[in-house]
């Protein structure tokens, strides 16, 4: 994997990082997304703005702070609520990844095309899942109900070993989420870990 260094004005970086955090990502993720879009579109991609119109509609989920989860603006300029059916399709795509018959970028595009979920959201969900089953910490978040559904699937379909790694991943992620993500998401995940450990 290539590494590069860029110089950015401190004020610009500070402001950009505040906006990126509100979108649920960091600078490295944003640069990766930007460069991927440049290669896909053969030019500069459209801008992504942090506004309430870009946040997923969580009106049916009163137990999570809307600012703690983000929904990237879909490149077709429509904003789609992530539904349980989308998450189920995404899980099936993830199983193909686990079996070695797909890679995250391609599967993200496929999920976006077949479900209507934005490609950015599909990529984040698949990345979170990958980190969970590998026992690695996450900096991104999902709707809490989706996380519970995916954890149940990990246990039922991938076995206790992967589930234990996923619990470990959640425990390692809680301090970051507690510090960086507004709302009760980190507390809910901590309670989940305590209940299921």
Structural overview:
- With 197 residues, the chain is an all-alpha fold.
- The protein has 2 domains: 44 residues, no CATH class; 128 residues, no CATH class.
- It is 60% helix and 0% strand.
- The protein is built from 8 helices and no strands.
- α3 runs antiparallel to α4 and α4 crosses α5.
- It is globular.
- The chain starts with 9 loop residues before the first helix and ends with a helix.
- About 15% of the residues have low confidence.
Provide the fold topology.
Elements: H1 10-22, H2 27-41, H3 84-98, H4 104-115, H5 119-133, H6 144-158, H7 160-180, H8 185-196
Helix pairs in contact: 3-4, 3-5, 4-5, 5-7, 6-7, 7-8
Give a quick summary of the entry.
This protein has 197 residues and is mainly α.
Could you tell me how far the N terminus lies from the C terminus, measured between alpha carbons in angstroms?
35 Å
- Could you spell the SSE succession in H and E letters? HHHHHHHH
Q: What characteristic shape results from the CA principal axes?
A: globular
Largest sheet: none
Backbone structural class: mainly alpha
Work out the radius of gyration.
Answer: 17 Å
Number of strands: 0
Low-pLDDT segments, ≥5 res: 50-78
- Total of helices: 8
Count of domains = 2
Overall mean pLDDT stands at: 81
Strand content: under 5%
Helicity level? 55-70%
